[in-house]
Structure prediction request, 76 residues.
Amino acid sequence: MDDFYDLLGVSEDASTDEINRAWREKARTYHPDLNDDTRANAQFKTLKKAHEVLSDETERAAYDRMDHAAYVRKRL
Prediction:
């Protein structure tokens, strides 16, 4: 699985504004109401979680401290 930065298509040093912009763009693509793919709901939920983590300074710091797999295993 890609990490949250890859899912949103931003670099690890992206600003909160860049993360929010990327989230809105991806949300328009993967939102289940706009995408007929049977996987759209799951994809959208994953993108939403990536945005929640990366747009929160405390969670992002924890995510950056751990690798993606460890963060998902311990926090999600």
About this structure: The helical segments are 4-8, 16-30, 40-55, 57-65, 68-75.
